[in-house]
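On to my pick:
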Amino acid sequence: MSLRLRKEPTTSNQKTSKIVEDLANPGKFVRLPDTQIETQLGSNSKIQPQTYSSSDDTSLSVFLLLSIAFSFQCALAFTGYSGQGKPPLFGDFEAQRHWMEITINLPVKEWYINSTDNDLLYWGLDYPPLTAYHSYLMGFVARKINASWVDLHASRGIETSSHRLFMRLTAICPFYLIYFPAIIVYFMRTADFGKNPFISRLRLLTFTILYPGILQIDNAHFQYNSISLGLFLWSYIFLENERFLAGSILFVLALNYKQLELYHALPIFVYILARNIKHPIFENLIRSIASISKIGLVVLGTFFVLWAPFTFQGTQQITAVLKRIFPFQRGLYEDKVASFWCAFSFVLKRIPNFELEKQLLASTTLVLGCSLPSLVPLFLRPTNVHFRLATFNVALSFFLFSFHVHEKTILLVAIPAFLLLNEKALYRDMVAFLTVSATSMFSLCIKDENASFLFCLAAFHLFGAWMRRHTVVENVS
């Protein structure tokens, strides 16, 4: 005889009570292991356990960020640029095009020399040899596409839509080939956030890539800062990882693309020197000398290769290049920028006999005097943190006190500020500095009649303010 239990019918009220009870106790719901799910569903079931990796989200986010930056660049590309429709000299856009014209049509020995075919008063080449080689390469491509873009003399002031598109693309490509990868490698791979990251790497990457300064100067005003700044970033990444030979070569390339990389030269020199002095010093003297000598030979060799076409022309050719690269005769500052010399120009004008030599001496003294407090600790204790701090402080000293400062040179201070964003004690200060530095370049927007940049500035400022407000940062003594 078997006994059967009769199941009582469940009313709707009981069902509702059961659902409410389950919802109130979410701990009752337990996720089964994938193996148990597969066992219960059966091996032939169409439902299979799914795998998920956080790198999928990161890759998608980086791609989205790249798309946003490209959209900004395209929008800026259709706005005004430096000197548009303003003959006879036009502006930086025409300067970059003219260098393509000169380098592709004239022999190397005439690139930096005044002549009937190369009027130095009309945007004469005034950047180091690597810029000249880059201009030659772009001129070669331009001639293959449309020779009228680089015709000697006849192409001056050309402003066709097709040529404008070509020039815009030549500025966008280096951003993604050199600058963008360096930023990604630093923030996603290299930057040390400690055991307890205080902010998302992706958020810092976004804040850096969308920095409106470099977007405006390269894609609206028109220059190729992403090349020299990208090379500097790659140099820093290699040096921080003790790849001194590769880092030294990359910095020499950056310096020979734009001489303004001198802003970063002192801390890089001190860091390499200090890190290659083996301790204890006297016991490892020979090893230290050998290590430093090897780096020195690599640096000299890189300089020789880049300058060889001019070196073989004789000392007069080298002198001509150096005079073009360092145009001291232009004065202490240019236009209205936030430098010491500009701020106190009303005082300087009243100093008797404050001529070129005294100006150079005063500028050099102030730059070195303000740089030494950062360089000495770096030499005594060459840590990565001290390296970043010294690079920022020295670059700022150059911007404030060096010779012939332009608004755009604040970019050379902004890049070291990016490197300090992962420091909790300095994070908020760097965000504020980058916002102010981007705003300081708005005067160029007025000159270029580029009002759309105001939107970029506003968006960047709001994003920076949001980062400062919603990120909790502990005070670090």
